[in-house]
Amino acid sequence: MQLPKKVLTSLLLFLVVSVDVRKNCYVPHTDGVDDSPAIMEVFGRCNVDSNIIFNTNIIYNAWSPMKWFNLTNVNIELRGQLHLPTNITEIQQKVVATYGSSTAPWFNIQGTNVNLRGEAAYKAGIIHGHGQHWWDLGVRTSRPLMVMFNVSTGTVSKIKMIQQIAHGFNVPGKNIKITDHYVDSVPTNGTRDSPASFPFNTDGFNIGGQNITIDGYYGNNGDDCVSIVNKANNVVARNGYCGFSSHGLSIGSLGSNGQNSQVANILFENWVMDGAVYGARFKSWAGGNGVAANITWRNIVLKNVSTPIFITQNYYDQSKGPKPNNTAPTSTHVQNFRFENFSGYMNPNWTDGTCISDPCWNYVEGINGTQGIIFDLYNGTATGLQVKNFHVRPYKGTEKDTTVICDPATLAPGAQDSLGFKCWDGQFVATPIHK
Ligand SMILES: *[C@@H]1O[C@H](CO)[C@@H](O)[C@H](O)[C@H]1NC(C)=O
Ligand SMILES: *[C@@H]1O[C@H](CO)[C@@H](O)[C@H](O)[C@H]1NC(C)=O
Ligand SMILES: *[C@@H]1O[C@H](CO)[C@@H](O)[C@H](O)[C@H]1NC(C)=O
Ligand SMILES: *[C@@H]1O[C@H](CO)[C@@H](O)[C@H](O)[C@H]1NC(C)=O
Ligand SMILES: *[C@@H]1O[C@H](CO)[C@@H](O)[C@H](O)[C@H]1NC(C)=O
Ligand SMILES: *[C@@H]1O[C@H](CO)[C@@H](O)[C@H](O)[C@H]1NC(C)=O
Ligand SMILES: *[C@@H]1O[C@H](CO)[C@@H](O)[C@H](O)[C@H]1NC(C)=O
Ligand SMILES: *[C@@H]1O[C@H](CO)[C@@H](O)[C@H](O)[C@H]1NC(C)=O
Ligand SMILES: *[C@@H]1O[C@H](CO)[C@@H](O)[C@H](O)[C@H]1NC(C)=O
Ligand SMILES: *[C@@H]1O[C@H](CO)[C@@H](O)[C@H](O)[C@H]1NC(C)=O
Ligand SMILES: *[C@@H]1O[C@H](CO)[C@@H](O)[C@H](O)[C@H]1NC(C)=O
Ligand SMILES: *[C@@H]1O[C@H](CO)[C@@H](O)[C@H](O)[C@H]1NC(C)=O
User: Which of 181, 247, 333, 352 is catalytic?
Assistant: First the structure.
């Protein structure tokens, strides 16, 4: 039988369109020298319709900060490893020389349709920061961000972040899916409760973009696993594990220096928090502005977590003097925050190794290891808060020993009726939710 011409034509068209037109560009490596110039040469030459391939079993010397910009339809295949220099001064000097600022990214990625792909294999897909040196020496200023992933449409999959110096990934882009992410920022010889060699500020993700999904995260670090920052909208973060001394699944901080922050439509679900300081956390600065709306945390398992649910709309740096007076009656408003299905037990210690000031940065009057929920709200600006199916106990004791800190004078009118627990300073008592 002969195929009609029309069918033949579309078949041919289909074949042509589906042929992979991307070129393969392999990144060279030379032992003992900075590979960055060679890497940049490849990114310049293969910035459109390309697969840029970092070869298997190769440790690339990523000894200079790099801007991988102007990429269109590019797959970055990280089959080997990218290692930063081990010399702290060298890193600090190079970042300043590149950006004029000391907290800029080491790997800065921009473009459209960009996929950063690691691999599941043990020695593949690794970005190594050699952060241990920084943690041992307690160097906590002038630290680079590891990766800025600022793309429009893209993916990040199976990347392993090892010993981040400080922040891991910043994601300010849009339409991005992140899967099977791995973070190991645990000191070889430090503990959760000691500042010595503690991996300060080793956030997994800071997300300020739109339409972002994280699905699959396994991380041990010393700060937020996922932190949602100003301008984030439509973000889902699900199926994760946060260990060592995570600071939680966080929104903020928002409203710093009076900033008008806008964050909306965020969902965290199916997380195990192990040894964390917080489970779910919201933080906005005293005197801030803007709104955070429609935020849900659900199906959260807590193992040894200091404070399972924490909201402050009145944050200030306690180590830098007394609480500022909120001169304007503003604060970042909080609307429709849902906390559903939290279970597990708390940590006996309400803080961790990041507690290096007096008073401690996260000290709250009355805190003693029994508080399952702390709401430090700004009078009248928090609406639609709800806690449901909360079954958490202190490290020692039963659910009956769980307490809350919450000032009913700060609740918006009628808010207690749908809050789901009694807002007071005392025992956790579930209350009926009236619609
Ligand atoms: C990206 O493209 C713009 C415009 O063509 C150019 O000015 C810029 O130098 C490029 N950036 C990099 C890092 O290649
Ligand atoms: C580290 O880098 C700095 C600045 O480039 C340099 O002066 C110093 O000699 C380096 N240290 C080592 C141990 O290589
Ligand atoms: C992200 O990229 C956009 C251009 O696509 C640029 O305008 C913006 O400044 C970048 N943001 C950051 C944080 O680099
Ligand atoms: C961990 O080991 C390093 C290198 O020996 C050392 O500088 C650091 O002080 C140690 N940290 C702790 C907490 O013992
Ligand atoms: C986010 O996704 C929605 C639905 O697909 C789309 O309408 C919207 O334009 C996207 N936002 C951005 C910033 O791309
Ligand atoms: C919050 O969700 C409601 C209901 O889905 C929606 O109407 C509203 O626009 C959302 N708020 C923001 C700031 O996106
Ligand atoms: C509550 O969370 C646990 C742990 O994630 C999950 O196994 C369980 O199915 C959840 N229950 C409901 C009713 O969603
Ligand atoms: C809980 O954390 C404390 C340190 O804060 C530690 O001593 C204890 O062993 C941990 N318990 C479990 C079961 O992990
Ligand atoms: C805040 O205002 C009160 C009363 O007006 C005043 O006593 C206090 O000193 C002020 N605090 C600061 C930090 O300005
Ligand atoms: C709790 O953590 C603090 C801060 O790191 C530490 O000083 C203290 O010893 C810890 N307490 C216990 C009981 O482990
Ligand atoms: C909270 O604000 C309301 C009016 O918005 C006011 O009547 C009330 O006194 C305030 N309460 C506190 C504790 O400041
Ligand atoms: C901890 O503080 C709460 C008040 O917030 C109090 O009810 C409880 O008895 C205290 N528990 C312990 C063990 O000190």
Answer: 247
Q: Annotated catalytic, 247?
A: yes
Residue with tokens 């909360």: 390
Residue nearest to atom 1 of ligand 9 (CA): 325
For this structure, is 223 an active site residue? yes
> What domains are defined for the chain?
5-427 (2.160.20.10)
3-state secondary structure of 389: strand
Pocket test for ligand 7, best of 241, 270, 338, 341 (most atoms within 8 A of CB): 341
The values of phi and psi at residue 249, to 5°, are -105, 100
Ligand 3 interacting residues, C-beta cut-off 6 A: 110, 148, 150, 172
- Taking the C-alpha atoms of residue 95 and residue 60, their distance in angstroms, rounded to an integer, is 19
pLDDT digits (tens, 9 = 90+) for 39-79: 999 999 999 999 999 999 999 999 999 999 999 999 999 99
Taking the centre of ligand 6 as the mean of its atom positions, its distance from the CA of residue 265, in whole angstroms, is 7
pTM of the predicted model, to two decimals? 0.94
pLDDT tens-digit map of 406-419: 999 999 999 999 99
Nearest to 333 by CA among 261, 405, 400: 261
Q: What is the 8-class DSSP label of residue 64?
A: S
What would the DSSP string read from start to end of 224-255?
-SEEE-TT-EEEEEEEEEEEES---EEEEEE-
Q: Which of 233, 291, 294 to mutate to test the pocket of ligand 6 (most atoms within 8 A of CB)?
A: 294
- Sequence-distant (6+) residues with CB within 8 A of 304 are 274, 275, 276, 345, 346, 347, 395
Structure-block tokens of residue 346: 């708390």
